[in-house]
Amino acid sequence: MFRNQRLGESRQDVLEYLSSREADLRIFHSDLLVDKAHLLMLKEQNLISREICAKILAAIDELMDEGPEALGPGEDVHEAIEAYILEKVGPEGGRMHTGRSRNDEVAACIRLSLREEMLSLMEGQISLIQTILRLAAENTKTLVPGFTHTQHAQPTTLAHHLLSHADAAARDLARLEEAYVRVNQSPLGAAAFASTKPHRPAPGLPGPGGKQHGCRLHPGLHPGGSIRFGHRDG
What mean pLDDT is reported for the chain? Predict the structure, then answer.
């Protein structure tokens, strides 16, 4: 939006080349949750009024119901969301970006989306382990040949064989849990790279239903702010 103000209208083929809209569909919902979290922080710190906060939150809720199809043109989903809010609320809608940058916003959106995907993966992995354990419990006396070096070896039970797969699946689950700890950290507050003034020691980004999860929302002044917003690599 600022590019148009400074440089004028861009050619359509250039806009299509620069656009990340298709890829951004993956983080659309997370973007709105991050916007909500940031707005609540701004209101708590009296950086925006209650009325403006309520108007913007209402517009975000409306967009959540309508889905990404309601968005107009824009280089990326963040610009399109901003345009939608400005259309619904007016110029005051731009206050939702007070005290943050596209850098820490995008990094937070990616982490939030990854977190939900990892939770889904872990849920599926737990279901797999439970199924294997159930089958093992039903086959404690089912004899099968064991194998080593691709040859028949000691006899064992099907339960024993199945439990080896359950153990491997449990190790995979542990790896996901360890990765989750690294992903579940908020870069909000790092701004463009040099950080913003500390706002609040909040408990975490909002998850489904607005519930807080165990990561820091606005860590404030980061000694390594440029690294913090670059945490897209985990």
Answer: 81
